[in-house]
Amino acid sequence: MSVWSDLRGQESVVEQLKRASQSGTPTHAWLFTGPPGSGRSNAARAFAAALLCDREALEERGCGTCKACRTVLAGSHADLTNVTTEKVTITIDEARELVRKAQDKPSTGRWRVIVVEDADRMQERSTNVLLKAIEEPPPRTIWLLCAPSPGDVLVTIRSRCRSVSLRLPPVRDVAELLVARDGIDPATAEAAARAAQSHIGVARRLATDDGARERRNQIVRLPLTLHSVSGAMKAAADLVKLAEAEAQSSFEQRDAQERAALLTALGAPETGTLPPSMRAQVKRLEEDQTRRAKRSKNDYFDRALTDLISFYRDVLMLQLSSPRELVNEPLRPDLEAFAGNGSAEDTLLHIEAINEVRTRLVTTNVSPLLAIEAMAVSLLSRKDLAR
Fold first, then answer.
1. Helix or strand or coil: residue 83?
2. CA distance 151 to 160
3. Is 74 helix (H, G, I), strand (E, B) or coil?
4. What's the average model confidence in pLDDT over 16-36?
5. pLDDT per residue as tens digits for the range 302-340
6. Is 109 helix (H, G, I), strand (E, B) or coil?
7. Residue 323: how many CB atoms within 10 A of its CB?
8. Which residues pair with 163 in a beta bridge?
9. What are the residues whose beta carbons fall under 8 Å from the beta carbon of 265, sequence distance 6 or more?
10. Sequence-separated (6 or more) residues with CB below 8 Å from residue 243
11. Reported pTM
12. What backbone torsions phi and psi does residue 303 show, to the nearest 5 degrees?
């Protein structure tokens, strides 16, 4: 399976990246943009693998089977630096470390590739540290930056990068990927892809985790329980609990996998006390996981609110008699009844209120519970508010 296999529905992007990987002089800086779930980070890693692929034949670059491709996709290739946002932002010290790494010559491959996921999470002064390195990089260094949109990156950086724009793939393509890659039942894969609104990572979790599916179903049904201020307050508390439970479930699984991988790499004994040197490395990992938790929780709150928006999106489609398919098709009878009790203008105001909370949770230190309580009350109808 080639490195491009996960990029379903992105044929034009794949062709663009294939041509560049086969070129002897690819552009030195790239900006991958697209909405959450479009696969911008996957595209950057696939491109990095193709650039470093061991195959000599140009048309075979990005084979996905050679040692270089496998180690790039695993994040362990010697000439790959992959930066993910472990904390709320990428700090200026981390940016300086990237500049230092960019000066190193490739050790085994053709290029030194630096992938910066969530480049939009860099503060302006951190981004400015990278500017000179991106503007005049060493001859064998290639930068791959990822962000939701070009506007999320400083124009001075954006103007020096070649743009790669991705879109959300169709539900059918996501379902086919889940079936082919993960062996998921076609009906389950399609339902998960639709519920995830084509977000590949979320779709896989929904298809493979019964608990995640149930938590999402409860979140989507919350508007049906809003009949009074006290009910809105309870619904807000329930949404926070569900989002935190989803985050905790993901943390536990990922943290356990990282700990097991570290212990295996260190050659730790299966039983007994760890030697001091190993304990120190495990402690550093646990500290990194704790720092990452805050950012990840915000991501899960955002996902929960996105799922909530999908309810009102479906209501709006029904109110406007749109031919577009519903995200939450199993709820159609409830959605139709809900749509009949309001107007499209009201529904748009509800969507705006939810999006405002999404922004506040990312840009301020507001308590998630307080922000979501205020939002839930704003979703009540005038009749319910009068109760």
1. strand
2. 14
3. helix
4. 91
5. 889 999 999 999 999 999 999 889 999 999 999 999 999
6. coil
7. 6
8. 31
9. none
10. 219, 297, 300, 301, 303, 304, 368
11. 0.73
12. -65, -40
Backbone angles phi, psi at 174, to 5 degrees: -65, -45
Q: Which tokens belong to 345? A: 């203008």
Residue located via tokens 């503007």: 135
Give the closest residue to 137 by CA, choosing from 103, 178, 110, 171: 103
Tell me, rounded to whole angstroms, the distance of Cα 211 from its chain centroid: 20
Q: Which amino acid, residue 47?
A: F
DSSP string, 218-255: HHHTGGGG-SSHHHHHHHHHHHHHHHHHHHHHHHHHHH
Both tokens of residue 204? 């896989």
H helix or E strand, kind and range, residue 328: none
Q: What are phi and psi of 196, to 5 degrees?
A: -80, -5
CA angle 149, 84, 363 (to 5 degrees): 55
Question: Which of 40, 246, 46, 69 lies closest to 149, judged by CA?
Answer: 40
Which residue has 């996921």 as its token pair?
117
Cα 198 off chain centre by: 12
3-state helix, strand, coil in the chain (%, to 5): 65, 5, 30
Residues 6+ apart with CB under 8 A from 273: none
* Dihedral angle sign, alpha carbons of residues 338, 340, 341, 346: positive
Over residues 195-221, the mean pLDDT reads 91
Strand order in the sheet with 112-116: 80-83, 112-116, 141-147, 29-33, 162-165
